[in-house]
């Protein structure tokens, strides 16, 4: 077989995924089971996100793929190429130009708009999975809204470490009902989960799709005496000087030298183009 | 099966259904928003928007209920040819199509179970007209408050009380579509 | 000045080119043909077809060639291909009672009607490297015996006549399809069997082995193992009748397991069942043992907490394509989540240090 359907998946599969997406939108934070298909990339490498994107994309879309916030990480490149080949869709690295953005582990710094869809790749969709490995049990807990185990875990963290020891994939409660895993984004990104764009989450191997509609209430779990703290490295970006962005720490020599740079590469280069400078920005040539 | 049953499908299914799905997604994600939905034509009284929705979302895996108003031989034939959805009673329907009056009382459709709230019916209610005046809507997908002309209020209030169980609704009129998920709180304006 | 690593796209292309070169190996050595792989690596083909859930020896051979002999990678290629195939219809259940057996043995009886047929088995070979194979040796011809085409009676049917073995009731329901519906727990037996037959051979083998060593021991005997060709029939709605669309080789194993009875059932034997594409007997026997272990609830046995009794544990982890994908995904960059952990640990350390300094000062 040499010719695949638009966006790779056959129409019946896309309809099945689309129905799951709509149920997800109707029940924010609830994990809808779907008959995930084997994709031509491995499970765990974004098959859920890819299936959701394939079900959403139209030929008019402008598609952006990021991994760790960057457009040029190898798996982001690989997924972008896949859709260029199978959907003939236009791609972009600019957040503002994208209509569909597939992401792994980050939410872009640029606030998203009503005209955008953010698709997350999710490894383990069940926020309770590491507390209770059994699907039969966690399903009951969600049904009964029985989230005590999660609060006990977080409280034990505080008792032992003085802090909640979860730095990424920090659990949230959606619309006062379902506890949800926001995928392994750093907790710094959690406050952005309340946004204008549609957020869709795809977990291929675990066969789950879930969603957050625009302007939906999303609260990071916490306690009155230990409020949620979306902290990040206490540095400005060394390239663009931003003080409000999530930073990667880069080791630059073998003597402990390091620098901090925006993980959102598009945001950082845009700021640099706008004239923002950081500690390690190249010395400017005199204006010509 | 007459010629009418064989026509009215998508000419380019992958692309037309992709666009139609985005509309279906957008209106459900933003309750109260009305959008144009075109592409499929089914025998009367099925509107173009409802036909397009059916063609986009239904297939042999989705049992469909046709309310009296829409349960004609022509419509059945069209569905058999283009969609292949098994026609069933209310209690087994994944989707249901009819006028609002014919679909009522809606408490006869499955609303899902606490373990699987997704195992519920999505109703496609054909209205005479759709407009952004009327009931006041709040909830997920709505920034502050939205408005939508609904055929009644009580049924939707009761449905929202079932959350996370409940029914989800598409409203169609001609080529226009709007939606109301179970998560939306409805008040008379 | 620091420049972020770029060029992911070129790196990927170059890696693929190098991979292709490594796949071919030394070009002064003749290239393997797909036909050679199909004919001479038949058991590898069988495993790829079984776990790939697609009966096509030519495609399996191509996948093995493309994957450089990495069978899990080959299975993955087949799975990814099979999902794109349209579903034209469903065959009738195959009738293994009408199998043309190449091999058929029973461990529970010395002799059985139809006879013990050893067939092409490694069982009694001495595992000595055969250096004659290294030199391209002549093939000695295998002796041929005339047989009459006849249905092989099932060994378990003999036990059934005495009421000594639990009867498996025939049901008319359509079994669920693992590849079209999301897995749902608790799973019924058809779903469990589907998962096991396409499960990883090594995983299913180890699970079976664990039951033999005492983790939910269920005293299995190989009631019968048969390997051979069966016809595949399918209804063609346009024709109004069913036609034979081809034949395939399968391995079927029924184990006979001791059962001391429960409140509702008298003491009798029970069965475990294995059915796998191709000549794959290690897998079929393993499958039968694990199937039997998973039936504890239905048979009113105790759950002793053994891994092989735990349906979710077995079914959720038996698929090697899911497992290998998730395992290997940790090679992908995780620097954003790692950074958040790094900061958290730094913060916790700083607080502990500050607290101990304060203590020391006091």
Description:
The complex is a heterotrimer of chains A (288), B (189) and C (362). Chain A contains 6 helices and 12 strands. Chain A has 288 residues and is of the alpha/beta class. Chain A folds into 2 domains: 210 residues, Rossmann fold (3-Layer(aba) Sandwich); 46 residues, no CATH class. With 189 residues, chain B is of the alpha/beta class. Chain B has a single domain, classed as Bacterial phosphonate metabolism protein PhnH (Rossmann fold, 3-Layer(aba) Sandwich). In chain B, the strands form 2 sheets. Chain B has a 6-stranded mixed beta sheet with strand order 1-8-7-4-3-2. In chain B, strands 6-5-9 form a 3-stranded antiparallel beta sheet. In chain B, helix 2 crosses helix 3. Chain B is globular and about 45 Å long. Chain B starts with a helix and ends with a strand. Chain C is of the alpha+beta class and 362 residues long. Chain C folds into 2 domains: 70 residues, no CATH class; 185 residues, no CATH class. Chain C is built from 13 helices and 4 strands. Chain C has a 4-stranded antiparallel beta sheet. Chains in contact: A-B, A-C. At the A-C interface, helix 3 and strand 11 of A face helix 1, helix 5, helix 12 and helix 13 of C.
Biggest sheet record of chain B: 6 strands, mixed
- Unreliable spans of chain A: none
The strand order across the widest sheet of chain B is: 1-8-7-4-3-2
Topology-level CATH name of the largest domain in chain A: Rossmann fold
The number of helical segments of chain A is 6
Q: For the terminal residues of chain B, how far apart are their CA atoms?
A: 47 Å
**Number of DSSP-assigned strands of chain A:** 12
- Helix/sheet category of chain B: alpha/beta
What's the β-strand tally of chain B?
9
Kindly give the count of domains of chain B: 1
CATH class of the largest domain in chain A: Alpha Beta
What structural class should be given to the helix and strand makeup of chain A?
A: alpha/beta
The percent of residues in helical segments of chain B reads: 25-40%
Given as residue ranges, the uncertain stretches of chain B (5+ residues, pLDDT < 50) are none
Radius of gyration of chain B, taken over Cα atoms and rounded to an integer in Å: 16 Å
Q: Which percent range describes the beta-strand content of chain A?
A: 15-25%
Number of domains as seen in the coordinates of chain A: 2
At a glance:
Chain A is of the alpha/beta class and 288 residues long. Chain A contains six helices and twelve strands. The model of chain A has no long low-confidence stretch (mean pLDDT 93).
């Amino acid at each position: 077989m040499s010719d695949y359907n638009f966006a790779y998946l056959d129409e019946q599969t896309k309809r099945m995924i689309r129905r799951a997406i709509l149920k997800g939108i109707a029940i924010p934070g609830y994990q809808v089971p779907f008959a995930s298909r084997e994709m031509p990339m491995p499970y765990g490498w974004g098959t859920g996100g890819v299936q959701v994107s394939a079900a959403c994309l139209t030929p008019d879309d402008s598609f952006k793929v990021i991994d760790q916030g960057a457009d040029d990480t190898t798996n982001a490149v690989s997924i972008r190429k896949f859709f260029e080949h199978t959907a003939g869709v236009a791609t972009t690295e600019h957040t503002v130009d994208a209509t569909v953005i597939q992401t792994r582990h980050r939410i872009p710094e640029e606030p998203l708009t009503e005209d955008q869809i953010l698709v997350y790749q999710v490894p383990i969709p069940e926020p309770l999975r590491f507390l209770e490995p059994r699907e039969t049990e966690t399903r009951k807990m969600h049904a009964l809204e029985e989230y005590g185990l999660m609060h006990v875990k977080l409280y034990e963290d505080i008792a032992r470490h003085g802090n909640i020891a979860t730095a990424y994939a920090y659990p949230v409660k959606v619309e006062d009902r379902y506890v949800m895993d926001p995928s392994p984004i750093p907790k710094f990104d959690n406050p952005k989960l309340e946004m204008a764009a549609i957020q869709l989450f795809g977990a291929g191997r675990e066969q789950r799709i879930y969603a957050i509609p625009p302007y939906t209430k999303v609260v990071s779990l916490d306690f009155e005496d230990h409020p949620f703290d979306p902290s990040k490295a206490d540095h400005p970006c060394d390239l663009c000087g931003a003080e409000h962005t999530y930073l990667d720490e880069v080791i630059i020599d073998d003597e402990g030298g390091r620098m901090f740079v925006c993980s959102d590469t598009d945001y950082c280069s845009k700021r640099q183009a706008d004239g923002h400078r950081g500690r390690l920005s190249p010395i400017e040539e005199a204006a010509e | 099966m007459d010629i009418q049953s064989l026509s009215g499908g998508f000419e380019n299914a992958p692309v037309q259904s992709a666009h139609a799905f985005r509309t279906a997604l957008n209106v459900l994600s933003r309750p109260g928003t009305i959008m144009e939905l075109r592409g499929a034509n089914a025998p009367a009284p099925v509107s173009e928007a409802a036909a397009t929705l059916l063609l986009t979302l239904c297939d042999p895996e989705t049992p469909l209920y046709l309310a009296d108003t829409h349960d004609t031989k022509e419509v059945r034939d069209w569905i058999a040819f283009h969609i292949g959805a098994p026609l069933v009673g209310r209690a087994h329907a994944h989707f249901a199509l009819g006028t609002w009056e014919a679909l009522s009382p809606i408490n006869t459709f499955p609303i899902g179970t606490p373990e699987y709230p997704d195992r519920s019916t999505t109703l496609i209610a054909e209205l005479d007209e759709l407009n952004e005046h009327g009931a006041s809507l709040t909830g997920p997908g709505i920034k502050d408050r939205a408005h939508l002309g609904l055929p009644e209020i009580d049924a939707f209030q009761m449905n929202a009380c079932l959350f996370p169980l409940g029914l989800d609704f598409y409203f169609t009129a001609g080529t226009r579509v709007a939606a109301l998920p179970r998560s939306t709180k409805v008040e008379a304006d | 000045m620091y420049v972020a690593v770029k060029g992911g796209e070129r790196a990927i292309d170059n890696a693929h080119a190098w991979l292709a070169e490594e796949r071919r190996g030394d070009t002064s050595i003749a290239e393997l043909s797909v036909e050679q792989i199909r004919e001479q690596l038949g058991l590898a083909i069988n495993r790829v077809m079984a776990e790939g859930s697609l009966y096509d020896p030519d495609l399996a051979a191509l996948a093995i060639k493309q994957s450089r002999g990495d069978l899990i990678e080959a299975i993955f290629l087949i799975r990814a291909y099979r999902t794109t195939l349209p579903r034209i219809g469903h065959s009738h259940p195959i009738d293994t009672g009408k199998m043309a057996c190449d091999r058929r043995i029973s461990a529970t009886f010395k002799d059985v009607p139809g006879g013990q047929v050893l067939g092409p088995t490694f069982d009694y070979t001495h595992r000595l490297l055969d250096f004659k194979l290294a030199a391209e040796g002549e093939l000695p011809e295998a002796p041929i015996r005339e047989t009459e085409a006849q249905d092989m009676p099932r060994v378990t049917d003999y036990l059934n006549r005495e009421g000594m073995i639990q009867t498996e009731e025939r049901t008319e329901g359509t079994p669920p399809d693992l590849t079209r519906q999301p897995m749902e727990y608790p799973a019924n037996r058809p779903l469990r069997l589907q998962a096991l037959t396409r499960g990883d051979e090594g995983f299913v083998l180890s699970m079976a082995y664990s039951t033999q060593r005492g983790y939910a021991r269920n005293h299995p005997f190989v009631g019968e193992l048969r390997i051979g060709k069966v016809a595949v029939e399918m209804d063609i709605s346009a024709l109004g009748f069913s036609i034979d669309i081809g034949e395939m080789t399968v391995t079927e194993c029924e184990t006979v397991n001791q059962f001391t009875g429960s409140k509702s059932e008298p003491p009798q034997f029970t069965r475990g069942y294995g059915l796998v594409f191709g000549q794959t007997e290690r897998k079929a026997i393993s499958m039968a043992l694990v199937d039997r272990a998973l039936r504890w609830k239905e048979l009113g046995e105790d759950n002793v907490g053994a891994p092989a009794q735990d349906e979710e544990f077995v079914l959720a982890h038996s698929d090697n394509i899911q497992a290998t994908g998730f395992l290997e995904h940790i090679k992908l960059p995780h620097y954003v989540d790692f950074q958040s952990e790094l900061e958290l640990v730094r913060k916790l350390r700083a607080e502990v240090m500050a607290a101990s300094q304060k203590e020391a000062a006091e």
